[in-house]
Amino acid sequence: MSMDIIVKKGLDLKLVGKPSNEIEQAKFSQDFAVYPADFHGVFPKLVVKENDSVKAGDILFFDKNSEKVKFVSPVSGKIKEIVRGERRRVLEIKIHADKEITYKKIKKLKSENSSDIIDYLSENGLWTYIKQRPYDVIADPESSPKEIFISGFDSSPLSADYDFITKDQKENIIEAIKHLSKLTKGSVNISLRKESNSFLRELNDVIIHNVSGPHPAGNLSTIINKVSPINKGDTVWTLNLPDLAIIGNTILNGKFSPDRIVALVGSSISKPKYYKTLAGSNISTFLNLNEKNSRIISGNVFTGTMINLNGHLRHYSNEITAIPEGNDYDLFGWAKPMFEKFSVSRALTFSWLFPNKKYDLNTNTNGEHRAFVVTGSFEEVFPLDIYPMQILKACMYKDLDEMEALGMYEVSPEDFALTEFICVSKQPHQSIIREGLDLMKKEIG
Amino acid sequence: MSIKSKLHEIKESFKGKKMAPAFNAFHTFLFTPNDITSSGTHVKVADDLKRTMNTVIMSLVPCLIFGIFNAGYQHNLAIDDANGISTQVSLFGNFLTFDNLMIGSMKVLPLVIVSYVVGLTVEFIFAVIKGHEVEEGYLVTGMLVPLIVPVDLPLWMLAVSVVFGVVIGKEVFGGTGMNILNPALTIRAFLFFAYPTWMSGDKVWVYDAVNRAGTPEAISGETILGMHAQNLTVDMYSLQDMFFGFIPGSIGETSKLLIIFGALFLIFSKIGSWRIILSTLIGALVMGLIFNGVIEAGIITDSSKFYGLMSVPFWEHLLIGSILFGAVFMATDPVTAAQTNKGKWIYGFLIGFISIMIRVFNPAYPEGVFLAILLMNVFAPTIDHFVIQSNVKMRLNRLKIKAA
C-alpha cells in the first residue's frame, strides 16, 4: 500500500560539499568511544570498569530508569578510560580496539513473540535504535505503540542518501521489518521520496508514504502529523532506515556490528564521498580536511553534534560534516548587502535571486541573541499544524497545560531546526523544545 | 595593529564588567561579532535584529527627507498666505529649495537627535543595570518619533515624553520584544495628553506659527482634518497635494507616495506584514463607506458637527491624516501586533475601522489612528488567544473522536 504526501512549507538549504556516489573502506580505527550523551534522558549505570576486556556486543552500561535497555560495545578490546564530568556523570567510555574483532555470540531468537523480540533487542543493544514519540527518547519497552514509523530518507542539508547507503542491505532490512511489525497492533509506515525506487516498495505488509517537498519532508513528525497525529496518551515508535540494517544483521548473523556507511560532506572536505566504518570509530581514520579552522559535526548542520578532530562517529550519525568556523568579525555585517550568506528575507540579502546556488556557510551566528521580535516567518518553514512561536514561548515559561494544548506530544527538537536556522533573534529553539519535553516527561510521564 | 584586533582586545578586557553592554553596543554597530554557534543548528541565516531594524529605518528615510523640505515649504507658504500671495507648489521651483532645506533641517534634525540621544541613553542605562545587551528596538522608535510630531514641538517636551515612553512603555515590561504598547505611540500619547495645546490646533503644524501668534506677522496652517472637523470647505489643497504630501501635518506622514514606497520596500523585504497593512486599509475604507452611507441616507445633515468628516469620500480618508503612515509603520510593529496570521487580519481591520471612527467622533482632536493602534495593541493578545484556541480545539476534538 502506498500514499502520497506533499509537504508545502519548508526550506531546502543547499550547501557546498555534496558527496559523490562512491564508497571507500575507512582504515580500521584503533580507538573507539561511546558517549552516553547520544542517548538523551538515559542515566548510565556502568557494568564495566577500566581495563576490562570486552567483545563486540558486550554490555557496557544500562539505563538506571529503564533497566531493560542495555548499551553494548561496538568493538572488542580493552576499556581504556571512563571519562567523567560533573557529579561523576559518565561522559565517554574509551575503548582500545583489538586488531581482530571478536564478537559476543548472540543466541537465536527464542520465538517470534513480541515479548521475546523486545527482550532480544534490548539485551543486545539494538533497542537504542527504536525511539518513541512523545518526547523523542529511546522507546519504553513496556509501552505499546499504536504504529511504527520508519524514516526512509533524510532531507537535511548534505545528508546521506539512504537509498544509496542501504542498497546492499536488503536482506537485513527486510528481516528487521519482519520482526518490528510484530511489535505493534497498528501498521509499519515507511517514508520514501516520491522519486525513490527503493527495494522497500516491493514489500507488501507495510505502508509506503511517497513524500515530496522541501525539508523537513524527511522528518518523521511531518509524516506522523499528516498520517496519524499523536494524541495525548498515544505512543508511536520511530526508526531510521540505516539502523534497521544493524538490527537485521544481528538477527540473521548472531553478532552485533554497528556498520555504517558514512557520508563525509561539507565545504571543508577535500573529497566528499562515502566511507564504510563502524559507529564509535575515530574520525581521523577517514577525515580529509582542506581547511584547518573547521567545525566537525557528527550528523548534519542542523541537528548534529560538534566533535573535535580526534572525535568519534556518534551512535546515530550517518554523516560527518565539516564547515568553516566563523569566529571572525564582519565590518558592518548587519548593514551591508549580503550575497554569500543565506537568508529567507530580502532585507539587502540576495539569496532569493539564486534559488539553486550552493552556499558555503560558516558557523558564525551572524548577530547576537535577542528576545523574539519578528513574527510570521517561522510559519513559512514549519509544516505541522502547530503554532511554532507560541509553543516555544510556552516551553520558555514552562506552562505545562499550554504546552500540551499546543501539541507538544507531536514534536521533537529536530522539527525546530529550520525555525532555529532562520531565527532573527538567534534563539536556541531545539534546546528550548528539548527542555520543554524533558519537563513534560518528568511532570506528566 | 588593525582596528579589528584592537577592539577585540578592548572587548575582552570588558568581559564580565558592568559597562560591557555599553561597549558592546558600539562594537557590534561597527562589527558583527565573532560569536559562533555552540548547540543546535551549526549555521544561521544572515539576518539579525540589527538588519531587520535597519531595513525599517531605510524605508523611513524618504519620509524624513520629504518632511524636512515640507517643514520649510509650509513655513514659507504660510508667510506668503498671510501676505495675501497665493502660491502654486512646484517641486523644483519652490519645494526642493535650499531655503526650505535649511529651515526644515534646523527644526527637524534637532527633534531626531533629541529623540535618539535621550531614548538610547535610557536604553543604555537599563542595559547596564540589568546586565543584558542593548537591544535594537529603539533604533526604529527613535526614527518614528520625530516623524509623528508637529514641527514646532519644543525639544524639552519631546525629551520628557521619550523618557516616559521608553521607561513605562517598554523597559518596565522587560525591554525590546516584551512590551505591550508600541513605544513610539506611547510617546505620542503622552505628548498628546500632557501638552495638548502643542499637539493640535492651527499653529503647531507650521514652523514659527506659535511664536508669531498675536503679532502682525502671525501665520497659521490648519491640517485638512482640522478643517473638515470644523465643517470648513477644503479647497486650498488638491488631491495631488494630498497624495504627494505638500500639506501641513506631522513631519513624516504627509507624503502618501513616499509612504507607499516605504510599504512596498517593507513588504518586498518580508520585514513588514502585508496582511496588517492591507487589512488596516480595508478596515478604514469600510468605516468610511459606512459614514458615507449614513450621510447619503440623510440621517446626519449638514447642521451636525460630524457632517464635515462624515461626508469625506471614503477613499479620501486614506489620503488625509496619518492612517497610511500608521498602517505601514506603526500597526506592523511585530512585538505589539497580533502574532498569528489570522490574528493579523482581524487586528489590522479593527485598527482601520476604529481609526476612522475615532477620527470622525473625537470632539477634541480630529485624528484617531494612534489611539486605535494603542487600543488594538492591548487587544492583540486576546485576538491571538482566540485564533490559537481553534487550533487547540482541533486537537481536543481529535482526542474525543479517538476516545469515542
Give a written overview of the molecule.
The complex is a heterodimer of chains A (445) and B (404). With 445 residues, chain A is of the alpha/beta class. Chain A has helices at 114-123, 162-165, 170-180, 220-227, 241-253, 388-396, 400-406, 417-422, 429-443, and strands spanning 2-6, 20-25, 31-34, 44-46, 53-54, 59-63, 70-72, 77-84, 90-97, 131-133, 137-138, 147-151, 188-193, 207-212, 236-240, 259-265, 273-278, 294-298, 305-307, 319-324, 330-331. A seven-stranded mixed sheet of chain A has the order 1-14-13-12-15-10-11. In chain A, strands 2-17-16-20-18-19 form a six-stranded mixed sheet, with helices on one face. In chain A, a hairpin with a 6-residue loop joins strand 18 and strand 19. The radius of gyration of chain A is 21 Å and the shape is globular. Chain B is globular and about 70 Å long. The longest helix of chain B has 35 residues, at 369-403. The mean pLDDT of chain B is 90. In chain B, helix 6 (137-147) packs parallel to helix 8 (183-194). The N and C termini of chain B lie far apart (74 Å). Helix content of chain B is 63%, strand content 0%. With 404 residues, chain B is mostly helical. Classes of the chains: A alpha/beta (445), B mainly alpha (404). The interface between A and B is large, with 74 and 61 residues. Strand 21 of chain A pairs antiparallel with strand 1 of chain B.
